[in-house]
Amino acid sequence: MRGTIAAGELWALLDGGSVPEPKGVQLKIIWRMTGNGGLRLSATGPAGQAVRPDWGPQAHGGSNWERPGAEWGAGFTFPVAGCWDIHAARDDVAGDLYLPVA
Predict the structure, then answer these.
(1) Could you give phi then psi for residue 66, rounded to 5 degrees?
(2) pTM value?
(3) Total tally of structural domains belonging to the chain
(4) CB-based burial, 75-95: b 16+ in 10 Å, e otherwise
(5) Nearest to 93 by CA among 41, 33, 44
(6) Angstrom distances, CA of residue 6 to CA of 3, 26, 37, 93, 102
(7) CATH classification of the domain holding 90
(8) Which pLDDT tens digit goes with each residue over 24-70?
(9) Contact 70, 32 (CB under 8 A)
(10) Is the omega angle on the peptide bond into residue 22 within 30 degrees of 0, that is, cis?
(11) For residues 1 and 100, what is the distance between their CA atoms, to the nearest angstrom?
């Protein structure tokens, strides 16, 4: 999935997942994002409910997934159905991925 970003690129690969994702099940997401610095992630869902990653982001040293930018993995569990905005930020760029959860 390609994220929404003003300057740069943001990509997410759902590891074993499908859209829409089921609520209450941990999902591993592999991220690729251009820019500098570490990756920070947070998610906001229906009624402003916020969640942080269950784990990560963890930097990946190598991969065969060819997208621009550095790569990380992170796990999220979305507690309720609806559209979730996952916000990704580095030191000089930020973007969003909108993920439907059933």
Answers:
(1) -95, 95
(2) 0.94
(3) 1
(4) ebebeebeebebebbbeebbb
(5) 33
(6) 10, 29, 17, 8, 28
(7) 2.60.40.10
(8) 999 999 999 999 999 999 999 999 999 999 999 999 987 899 999 99
(9) yes
(10) no
(11) 12
